């Protein structure tokens, strides 16, 4: 602002992009004298007092007096200047070109982590109850008696191997590793296709879950001895 003339301009943020515009490119707004005085009144209490004194009419003076001061002036002690100067020496700001390259490449990547838990029922084992293990068999046979067995065969159609392979395919094709301690990243340009593949994987997982539940319902169940007596007392034959 100079006298009754003023301009508002918006410089390019060098951290984000280089200024490639031509010199003749417009980049400012010219303010009217009234706008200059109103803008001046918002800068500081002293500037507001000047704007009030420069008002040409009582109405304009009253309007400026009612405006709030947006930028207040505070005294800065020399110690604070010294702290800022020391901070700039300890951690100098990065060059505009270097900082711009970092900020430009950062939005292209996103950290991701894929996990699948509880689906591998082919790795689940069942423990044989102690009462069955102590059958009075010979000592040699007892030592060879396994106390656990696999819930299903590893090559069973109920195995989750096809789901794990599909997850590995997504992880290998969409989320390259940055190293053991740095995780995996995803290109944001591939995010829509990545999410579609994850939806397909969830559908396979739900289908596999329903299949396991159907097969489990077909399997015979052991009925405790107390329940067997109850069935016989009600006229129901002992279950197989």
Structure explained in plain terms:
It is a single chain. With 240 residues, the protein is mainly α. The protein has ten helices and six strands, in the order ββαααααββααβαβαα. The chain has helices at residues 33-41, 45-54, 58-66, 78-90, 96-105, 130-133, 139-143, 161-174, 191-218, 225-233, and strands spanning 6-9, 28-31, 109-112, 125-127, 148-150, 184-187. The strands form three sheets. Strands 1-2 form a two-stranded antiparallel sheet. A two-stranded antiparallel ribbon has the order 3-6. A two-stranded antiparallel ribbon has the order 4-5. Helix 1 runs antiparallel to helix 2 and helix 2 (45-54) packs antiparallel against helix 3 (58-66). It is elongated, with a radius of gyration of 38 Å. Mean pLDDT is 76; it is low at 230-240.
Q: List SSEs in N-to-C order.
A: EEHHHHHEEHHEHEHH
Q: Percent of residues in beta strands?
A: 5-15%
Give the N-to-C terminal Cα separation. 98 Å
**How much helical structure, as a percent, in the residues?**
40-55%
User: What characterizes the major β-sheet?
Assistant: 2 strands, antiparallel
Number of helical regions? 10
Structural class: mainly alpha
Shape estimate: elongated
Give the strand tally: 6
- For the biggest β-sheet, the strand order reads 1-2
Radius of gyration: 38 Å
Pick out the low-confidence regions. 230-240
Task: Indicate the mean pLDDT.
Answer: 76
């Amino acid at each position: 602002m100079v006298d009754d003339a003023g301009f508002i301009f918006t410089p390019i943020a060098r951290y984000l992009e280089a200024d490639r515009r031509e010199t003749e490119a417009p980049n400012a707004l010219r303010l009217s004298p009234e706008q200059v005085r109103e803008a001046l009144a918002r800068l500081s209490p002293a500037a507001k007092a000047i704007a009030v004194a420069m008002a040409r009419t009582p109405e304009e003076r009253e309007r400026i007096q009612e405006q709030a001061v947006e930028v207040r002036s505070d005294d800065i002690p020399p110690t604070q200047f010294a702290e800022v100067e020391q901070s700039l020496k300890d951690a100098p700001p990065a060059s505009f070109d270097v900082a711009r390259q970092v900020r430009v490449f950062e939005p292209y990547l996103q950290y991701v982590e894929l996990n699948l838990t509880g689906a591998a029922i082919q790795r689940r084992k069942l423990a044989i109850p102690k009462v069955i293990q102590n059958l009075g068999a010979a000592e040699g046979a007892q030592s060879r008696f396994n106390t656990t067995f696999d819930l299903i065969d590893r090559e069973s159609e109920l195995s989750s191997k096809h789901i794990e392979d599909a997850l590995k395919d997504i992880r290998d094709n969409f989320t390259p590793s940055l190293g053991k301690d740095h995780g995996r990243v995803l290109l944001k340009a591939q995010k829509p296709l990545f999410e579609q593949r994850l939806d397909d994987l969830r559908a396979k997982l739900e289908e596999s879950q329903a299949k396991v539940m159907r097969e489990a319902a077909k399997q015979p169940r052991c009925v405790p001895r107390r329940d067997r007596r109850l069935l016989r007392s009600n006229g129901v034959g002992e279950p197989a």
